[in-house]
Design goal:
The complex is a heterodimer of chains A (about 525) and B (about 140). With about 525 residues, chain A is of the alpha+beta class. Chain A contains 13 helices and 20 strands. The longest helix of chain A is centred in the N-terminal third of the chain and has 16 residues, at about 130-145. By secondary structure, chain B is an all-alpha fold. The chains are: A alpha+beta (about 525), B mainly alpha (about 140). The interface between A and B is large, with 40 and 55 residues.
């Protein structure tokens, strides 16, 4: 029997890319993915097509449910293209998105790259020290910018970080206020820590990629090489001949034999069934699609797998002293500041990211103000620049209400109800008021289920001897299989309140490094 | 193109010209007009399920579209007129390359003082209340629903 490769990796997102990065040092790797790509760069694109799209996709929130600005952006539509047809989900409460693009959902991420510390890893059968070498290796590979303040130590090691992204507008003022000794003490007493972000965005040229430059088009231009996405790693390995990438195939299931794994897939263009064989199989298709492949492989239509997701809330703030300032100030349009909350109002740490509103179309907010059209238009020009949004992430643990299962026709049944908190938001509103940032509890919005795009926990990692059902051991090996490994967030038994991408990557590298070939 | 479709397209052209003039005080360019018409094609199915207003009467009688929209928005969120105005704001932003500006705003000039902004907001609050009353009156006086 001829093998197609020593190792097959399914999926090109953070997990697949990082596993390939590690494995390509020692063996032959084949990556299978649908791999939609960003449209070709076209400098002559007119503003209507760039901002609103050929089919006016950018205006969809007028009549359709809310979709994050980046995923709604016309040139980013490739990120979520065709998943509903190819990876169907039946759910009344899942309002998230999946991605079949090269690089996965990370094509549209907020770029926050945090490390999980031992407190975050409580409930995992692994410790920080096992992930630490891979965090460092990734920091050097990706080029992560970050600060040296007290929050930096909560977000990860400061080693090898690039200088932080510059701050601007209301958030620059917020950071300044929060670092004053008296204010800092007050914030600490209330369990609040505010500091610079750790971002996968280059502030200096790094490994052939340019430093970030502001043009106000972060949400509309998918070709900004300063903003990392795992597709860069995949393309780099492919160009170096260290990885074979087979695009346009949708992996359906696998079957394990004594000497090999057979992977069954469908060629999307022809509709033909295709087979691949390898010694080892690494599943990195994301928590939902990896679970689907496993359930399909075992033809299991009854098991309910746990589903984890970070519940999120949004708190808008106005900084009165910044009223009248330009909303399109020269600044990065993603997350600018990080917040950690460890007060008694919530059982676990809560993490937040502050965003300004300069990157999206102002018209998105036209009816978010309480005046007639002229008043609201005035607000877009003079209030938006003084506003910031704090996006709060909560941790998650398995619960009976959130699960997925496979139906006989191949559709996933998914339940992921929205959750509301409120105590932490109330405390933050009161604390930030002291720094001149106003908000009110009735302005807080709670996202619907699935909206965080942080999915995990479907095939949880357990201690040896504790393997039940569809779970993995501490080395990612799937229970009931000898040579199938899960490298994505499916294997997280719990989901701390932190951006998970960097830990997905570090864990994938850890598993890949332990693979015995 | 059928006579009905031609007539509908002409009405949409008049609509966007009217909204651009009354709300933004700028002329809608051909690309924006075409996109406005296309918006109704793409999102028409969803618009047809929402509370509609008689646009023809608003255009012919030159009614206060800002006042009517504000009144309807408070009574019927997501109504067709609000959707049309929102679409026009996006088209303005694509046409001009800047955040949409109201016709009054141009007269206010460059307001960078936070205090002055608050005063203007208070004035807009009062103005909006007046507009709401006017909008309600026009909706019932002209049987727009």
């Amino acid at each position: 029997m001829t093998l197609d490769a020593d190792v097959i990796i399914v999926g090109s997102g953070p997990a697949g890319a990082a596993a390939a990065l590690e494995l390509s040092k020692m063996t032959e790797v084949l990556m299978l993915d649908i791999g939609h790509s960003a449209p070709e760069e076209s400098p002559g694109l007119d503003r209507f097509a760039e901002l609103l799209g050929e089919r006016l996709e950018g205006m969809s929130i007028i009549t359709e449910p809310y979709l994050s600005p980046k995923l709604r952006s016309p040139l980013f539509r490739y990120v979520t293209r065709s998943w509903r047809e190819l990876s169907p989900i039946n759910s009344s409460d899942f309002k998230g998105e999946l991605s079949l693009a090269l690089g996965g959902l990370a094509n549209a991420w907020g770029s926050g790259l945090y490390e999980f510390d031992d407190m975050d890893l409580r409930g995992f059968p692994i410790s920080y020290s096992e992930l630490q070498p891979f965090y460092l290796s990734l920091t050097k590979h990706i080029g992560i910018s970050g600060g040296g303040d007290e929050v930096a130590s909560l977000l990860g090691s400061r080693e090898c970080l690039l200088p932080p992204m510059p701050l601007a507008g209301a958030l620059k003022a917020l950071y300044g206020h929060s670092q004053r000794p008296k204010m800092k003490m007050f914030l600490h007493q209330n369990g609040i820590h505010i500091g610079r972000q750790r971002l996968g965005i280059l502030t200096e040229p790094h490994r052939g990629r340019p430093a970030y430059s502001f043009d106000g088009k972060d949400f509309f231009c998918p070709w900004k090489a300063a903003i990392y996405n795992p597709a860069y790693t995949v393309r780099e390995l492919e160009a170096l001949g260290k990885l074979r990438l087979r695009r346009g195939v949708l992996v359906k299931q696998f079957e394990e034999f004594s000497d090999r794994i057979r992977v069954d897939a469908v060629d999307i263009a022809s509709g033909q069934r295709v087979e691949f064989s390898a010694r080892r199989l690494l599943l990195g298709a994301g928590a939902i699609n990896s679970a689907r492949i496993v359930l399909q492989s075992f033809k299991d239509y009854s098991t309910r797998l746990p589903m984890l997701e970070n519940p999120i809330s949004f708190i808008p703030f106005i900084h009165f002293a910044s009223l009248g300032s330009d909303s399109k100030e020269n600044s990065f349009t993603g997350a600018q500041l990080a917040l950690m909350f460890d007060g008694p109002e919530h059982r676990d740490r809560v993490q937040g990211s502050f965003y300004n509103l300069s990157g999206v179309l102002s018209s998105d907010f036209l009816f978010d103000f309480p005046f007639s059209a002229s008043g609201n238009l005035f607000c877009l020009a003079k209030i938006l620049g003084a506003m910031a949004v704090l996006q709060m992430y909560y941790s998650d643990a398995p619960n009976p209400a959130s699960f997925l299962s496979l139906r006989t026709e191949g559709v996933l049944e998914l339940h992921c109800p929205a959750r509301r908190f409120g105590k932490v938001e109330g405390k933050l509103i009161n604390a930030l008021r002291k720094m001149g940032f106003w908000s009110a509890p009735f302005l807080v919005r709670y996202a619907e289920g699935g909206s965080s795009f942080h999915y995990a926990g479907t095939l949880p990692m357990r201690e040896a001897g504790d393997s039940i059902g569809f779970s993995t051991d501490r080395f990612g090996r799937l229970n009931r299989c000898k040579h199938v490994y899960v490298v994505d967030a499916s294997s997280f038994p719990l989901l701390p309140a932190k951006n998970l991408s960097l830990t997905i990557m570090a864990n994938a590298m850890r598993i890949a490094s332990k693979l015995v070939l | 193109m059928s006579r009905t479709a031609l007539g509908q397209s002409h009405t949409l052209e008049l609509e966007i010209a009217f909204i651009f003039r009354e709300i933004f005080d700028v002329k809608a360019q051909q690309q924006a007009i075409a996109a406005y018409s296309y918006f109704h094609t793409v999102y028409g199915a969803s618009l047809s399920t929402r509370k509609a207003v008689n646009m023809t009467k608003i255009l012919i009688r030159g009614l206060d579209v800002e006042a009517i929209e504000f009144f309807l928005r408070t009574r019927f969120p997501g109504n067709v007129l609000t959707c049309k105005l929102w679409a026009c704001a996006y088209l303005y932003e694509a046409q001009e390359g800047v955040a949409p500006r109201g016709r009054i705003q141009a007269r206010l000039g460059r307001t960078n003082s936070p205090l002055l902004c608050l005063v203007i907001l208070a004035w807009f609050g009062f103005r909006s209340a007046v507009k709401w009353l006017k909008g309600g009156f026009q909706v019932y006086r002209h049987h727009l629903l």
